[in-house]
Amino acid sequence: MYKASVITRLLCLICLLFAIPSLADIAPPEGKRRGSRVKKPPKEKHDALGFIVINGTRTEVRWTDGDSFKFKDGVYKGIGTRLVGYNTLEAYGPVHQWGEWTGAELFTLAKASSQVAAAQEWECTSDGKVDGYKRLLVRCPKLAVEMARAGHGLAYAVDGEKPDPAVVAAQAEAMKEKRGMWAKGGTNGVITSLHSVGEDGDEEQTEAYNRVVDTRTGQALKRKHGDRYESCQNVCLETDGQKSCMIYVPFRHRYQGQPDCLKVP
Fold first, then answer.
1. Which residue has the higher pLDDT, 235 or 22?
2. Rounded to whole angstroms, how far apart are CA atoms 59 and 71?
3. Which CATH class is domain 48-250?
4. Whole-angstrom Cα distance, residue 10 to residue 222?
5. Amino acid 25: pLDDT
6. Residue 79: left if φ>0, alpha if ψ -120 to 50, beta else—which one?
7. Domain spans of the chain, in order of start
8. From the DSSP assignment, how many helices (H) and strands (E) are in the chain?
9. Is this structure's pTM higher than 0.70?
10. Which residue has the higher pLDDT, 18 or 181?
């Protein structure tokens, strides 16, 4: 009787073991194991650390592109800036195009502009004024000249400002020597911003403006229009018979939720 009971228990134990799935059967799929996460590819960085002297005080900054930076320390710590007197190509995607340049080629050049700006220490000043995006307006005269001379900057004056003759002359030199953005030839005008009618959700809006900088003078004038642009639409404008183009993307999608036209494989 005792032996029969033991045999019965052993048979039950064997059946139970065969009924239990193996570890391989219950393990989660590859990439979803407990305690692990599927890693996303790192975002491309084109920021660059450098130093400026702002109103006499040496300060560390992080260049986000070739014409703006954020303060890393000092009284303006954490504040973004907009440099006055010159402009660089947009670095949020392959949006510029003229002549034989492709958007991807000019995008590569635009991303390198932060490294060019960070390569030296610059004397800068600010009177505390901000632009429409609440960025501190900063003037670094020698930087503006050198960015233009390297073909990484455009002489740029808006809203009644007078272009700096030194920056305009440096840009003319770069265009003649085919440096930087002028390596494949120049154009009389470069689009620096596009705005669509109704861009901010105002369906009653009937007029908007684009801004085009004249590469011969440095004047960045508004061009009013009544057009509605679709996201990723390629907009081309002429300046005295020469054309430049720019991909339109609403501001809210330039850095977050980017459309496919801003992504480069």
1. 235
2. 7
3. mainly beta
4. 90
5. 42
6. beta
7. 48-250
8. 5, 14
9. yes
10. 181
